[in-house]
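User: tokens in, sequence out, please.
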């Protein structure tokens, strides 16, 4: 009996050990990668339990893919070696993508990253979705095998090849590699002045040295090179040669490794170049001077000792500066989209005297566009229509987005069964707070029934989704409200029309634009006096001038805030 108990206990221990091993194996996510050059590699990252869900630390994925990242409790910024980067936030599931430091697009993830103990976590299938949308990776997740398979795009250029090589090798902590002669292929050949033996040169300062390409118009030019001395002075003399002194003599910022180049003509008829290096700050490591293969030119390569931390800090500062510049350019009010409501087979509202809303709105928009183009030369005007054509509601906002518009202004005329209803009002996208606002939105939105596929096309345009869209566009709400107030007051002053104020409603035309957007109901076309005013050239001009004045004021305040 004792032997049976002992045997049973041993079996239990073995079963527990096997179960523990299986549990340990199950806690790892396998990454199968097919790189841009066709090679395959594999890696493993740890699963973590976050809010009772198995998730993966984004930082672990970054390490596996050799992506650099910066992590704070509010956000996570991930970047490739080609400066393509993506910003993830814990407070929403929208991510901002930069391409080579240029802000390009916003992508929507299935869920926002979860934060636990300062680290960001995503489910494996969401990791695959994120990389697919950002880097174009073909990703699939097998929950049974606990494997994430990713196939990267085929190699398109040398930068992709360099990144591919980096994924298959551990990250180097030795800092930037020494520049080689292949680096100099990045320097384009200028138009050479054949009057000189040495007409010009090109300087390419790297993080760990400098490459100087010296252009020559004749073959086999004789030379003498004296490497940098203890004071950082080097001499390069070309025998019986002439040079363009203005082009060859150069000065550089004091913080640079290369401080200056001085060209002089010697009595012997030789051309001498004197190079001064900043040895007070940098220690020269080596120097090399040689003819460039396949041309008349010469290459001077001077390497310096590298402080890796200093370089990283400098690159970080420069990156932040560049990102700030890009951010300023991103929000510069340089493109405005003007939308003339209705058009083509959709006449809009019709006044008692037969005035079509589509005619009035087009007249106002074209006059407004002319004012902007004439007086705001730095602003590009985009029109959703410039003639009597039909444009789908959702397509109007897409036109604004596609052209990078920073403002969207949609112009309409109001209508009512109450012939005494009059005046102008300006709308923002939002929930209908009054029955009157709801009716206005319903009338403007009813145009979708003239689109052949409207039932499928607008199936997501529900009151529930309106709340989501309004929240997504909340970043633009303050600017939209400011512009609406300016336009509302300006039209009242310029036109004398009754000012009915700023309101909110669910206009479908305002769902799509990703920018400050307003819809202007310029007046009631069903009111006799309003119709007469809006149908006239002078009335349309006054409304156009009023909106233009408001845009100018908005631009001034907008740029001052930025």
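Assistant: Sequence out:
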């Amino acid at each position: 009996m004792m032997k049976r108990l002992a045997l049973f206990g041993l079996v239990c221990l073995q079963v527990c050990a096997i179960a523990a091993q299986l549990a340990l194996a199950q806690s790892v996510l396998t990454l199968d990668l097919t790189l841009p050059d066709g090679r395959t590699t594999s890696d493993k990252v740890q699963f973590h339990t976050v809010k009772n869900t198995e998730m993966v630390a984004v930082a672990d994925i970054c390490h596996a893919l050799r992506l650099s990242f910066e992590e704070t409790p509010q956000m996570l910024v991930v970047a490739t070696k080609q400066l393509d980067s993506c910003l993830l936030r814990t407070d929403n599931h929208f991510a901002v993508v930069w391409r080579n430091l240029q802000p390009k697009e916003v992508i929507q993830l299935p869920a926002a990253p979860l934060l636990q103990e300062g680290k960001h976590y995503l489910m494996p299938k969401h990791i695959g979705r994120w990389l697919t949308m950002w880097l174009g990776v073909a990703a699939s997740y097998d929950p049974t095998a606990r494997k994430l398979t990713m196939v990267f795009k085929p190699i398109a250029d040398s930068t992709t090849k360099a990144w591919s090589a980096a994924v298959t090798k551990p990250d180097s902590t030795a800092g930037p590699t020494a520049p080689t002669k292949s680096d100099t292929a990045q320097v384009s050949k200028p138009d050479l002045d054949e009057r000189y033996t040495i007409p010009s040169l090109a300087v390419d300062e790297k993080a760990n040295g400098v490459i100087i390409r010296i252009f020559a118009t004749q073959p086999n030019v004789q030379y003498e090179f004296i490497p940098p001395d203890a004071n950082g002075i080097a001499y390069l003399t070309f025998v019986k040669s002439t040079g363009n002194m203005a082009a060859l003599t150069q000065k550089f910022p004091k913080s640079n490794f290369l401080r200056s180049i001085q060209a002089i003509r010697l009595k012997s008829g030789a051309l001498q170049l004197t190079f001064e290096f900043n040895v007070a700050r940098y220690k020269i490591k080596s120097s090399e001077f040689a003819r460039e293969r396949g041309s008349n030119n010469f290459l001077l390569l001077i390497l310096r000792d590298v402080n890796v931390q200093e370089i990283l800090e400098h690159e970080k500062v420069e990156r932040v500066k560049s990102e700030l510049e890009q951010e300023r350019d991103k929000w510069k009010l340089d493109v405005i989209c003007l939308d003339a409501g209705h058009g083509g087979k959709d006449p809009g509202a019709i006044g008692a005297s037969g005035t079509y809303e589509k005619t009035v709105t087009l007249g106002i928009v074209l006059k407004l566009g002319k004012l902007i183009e004439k007086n705001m030369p730095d602003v590009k005007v985009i029109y959703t229509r410039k003639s009597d054509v039909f444009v789908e509601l959702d397509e109007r906002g897409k036109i604004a987005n596609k052209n990078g518009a920073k403002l969207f202004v949609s112009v309409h005329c109001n209508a009512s069964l109450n012939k005494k209803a009059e005046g102008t009002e300006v709308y923002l996208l939002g929930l209908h707070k009054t029955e009157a606002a709801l009716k206005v939105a319903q009338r403007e939105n009813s145009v979708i029934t003239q689109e052949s596929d409207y039932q499928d096309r607008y199936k997501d345009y529900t009151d529930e989704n309106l709340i989501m869209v309004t929240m997504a566009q909340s970043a633009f709400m303050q600017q939209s409200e400011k512009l609406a107030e300016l336009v509302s007051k300006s039209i009242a002053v310029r036109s004398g029309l009754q000012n009915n104020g700023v309101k909110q409603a669910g206009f479908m035309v305002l769902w799509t634009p990703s920018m400050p957007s307003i819809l202007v109901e310029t007046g009631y076309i069903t009111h006799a006096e309003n119709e007469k005013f809006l149908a006239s050239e002078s009335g349309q001009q006054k409304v156009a001038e009023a909106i233009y004045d408001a845009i100018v004021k908005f631009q001034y305040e907008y740029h001052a805030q930025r």
